[in-house]
Amino acid sequence: MLGLGVVLFLTLRGEPYAVAGTIAAVGAVTNACVGPFVSRYIDRLTQHRVLPVVVVIALAFQITFLVLVLSGAPVWTWFVSFALGEAFVPNVGSLIRARWAFVLSDADDVRTAFAFESVVDEFVFLIGPILATVLAVSWIAWGAIGASIALLAIGTLLLVPQRATEPEPAGVGHHEGKAAIRYTGVPLVFAVFFLAGGLFGASEVSTIAFAAERDIRVWTGVLLACYATGSALAGLIVGTRHSSRSLSHQFRIAVIAMGFIALPFPFVTSPVLLGALSFLAGLAVAPSMITGMALTERLVPASRLTEGLTIVISGLTVGFAAGTSLAGPLIDAHGSRAGFAVCAAFSLLGAALVAVGTAHLDRALRGVTLSGHPSTAGDGRV
Q: Would you say 325 and 145 are in contact if contact means Cβ atoms under 8 Å apart?
């Protein structure tokens, strides 16, 4: 809700899409840069020690951002405050998935749990855009940001006391060894997630502009939710089936499908057709994300799992920022169709990269099998 809330908040106040998209992008990039370091300290010190500190910092700067915009402060202060507010937002998806990997010992069970989390994510992504749009358009421009701040605070208060599923601290030895991004195969997953994030980011800001051009802003959340609905449905299917194909093969097929489905977006003129195409594209999203995270869970050791998952999810975040920042100025100059063209470009690049990189992932997985550093701890408590 936060990134979408910023775009809605600023554009409803008359700011151009380029400014709104760039501020959201700067915040996302800052989070992607700082997030892996936050997650590294979480692996080292445990979630309950680190989360309260970083969340308080994040909330303080997000509130500061709102105050600065509403008081008419210089635009550069908006960038700084929002970047710092986003920098310390913890990657909750990584934290939860690390807990699943801690309490489950079987790789198939972990993948099913990751699929379940993806379905939960998509439900949140389905509800979030609708709620954000209603709050911002029908109530007050900063309503979505305010709701996001409240949800982050409440979620942290609910998560921190759950000590039974919390992974053990990695300890002093965690200072040694290489960063998660340096494990073979992880950079490729990060790069594919980056391009997928670019697709998502450009699609979101283009959909907002598409609705505004047709004076149907109130339907923006519904159009965005079509993506999440398709993805949630696909996540349910993936979570209930265990394919005999390798993870790298499943990852390649899903990403290529996601890429090619995005190609018609620049030519869509009907809101109904856009919603239908978004739903169809969403069917490939969950399989791509589930298999990509499952690959990461196999490629990095348990002591760096939160960090590894945060890094690949940061690829989504940075890509999302790139997508919004590239699409924003093009939309200002040429309309939503130009923004959807950015979606198509990112989708083709992602499909091409995963097509040529599957053999590299296969070698990386074979190397993990030989070296024997499974990520699942297998000694967790349910």
A: no
CATH 1.20.1250.20: does it fit domain 2-166+176-371?
A: yes
DSSP state string for 4-32: HHHHHHHHHTT--HHHHHHHHHHHHHHHH
Per-residue pLDDT band for 369 (boundaries 50, 70, 90) equals low
What is the number of other CB atoms lying within 10 angstroms of the CB of residue 340?
A: 28
Q: Is the pLDDT of residue 171 over 70?
A: no
Among the ranges given (73-77, 195-199, 286-290), the one the predictor scored with the smallest mean pLDDT: 286-290
Angstrom distance (rounded) from CA 150 to CA 162: 20
* Closest C-alpha among 221, 256, 218 to residue 127: 221
Instruction: With a cut of 90, say whether residue 308 has pLDDT above it.
Output: no
**CA nearest neighbour of 376 among 184, 104, 93:** 104
Q: What is the DSSP string of 41-108?
A: HHHHH-HHHHHHHHHHHHHHHHHHHHHHHHTT--HHHHHHHHHHHHHT---HHHHHHHHHHHH---HH
DSSP3 helix / strand / coil % (the chain, rounded to 5): 80, 0, 20
Token pair recorded at residue 339: 């923004």
| 372 pLDDT higher than 60 | no
Every domain of the chain and the residues it spans: 2-166+176-371
CB within 8 A of 193, min separation 6: which ones?
292, 312, 313, 315, 316, 319
Dihedral of alpha carbons 227, 228, 229, 231, sign:
positive
